[in-house]
Amino acid sequence: MDEAGQATRRVPQADDFPAGTQFVIKEFDVPLARVPGPGGGRWINWFGGVARPYDASRLSVGNHWPAGSFAGWQALVAASLP
What we know:
This protein is an alpha+beta fold. It contains one helix and five strands.
């Protein structure tokens, strides 16, 4: 958080995520991460460089796929920064 209480926008690094995190792209430009944990883990939307909870019920067959690489997923986050 910055001095105004706003989340700091940034491109996350691999060590920001626990082992087993899945990196997913939704509809060509939304970088999602599925962090492992109880109950199937939790989904996070990184669009704009800020981690926000994501409602996985919005995912459907054909509108998302695994990221080809972590570097490619990072580039998508970087491209979404204002």
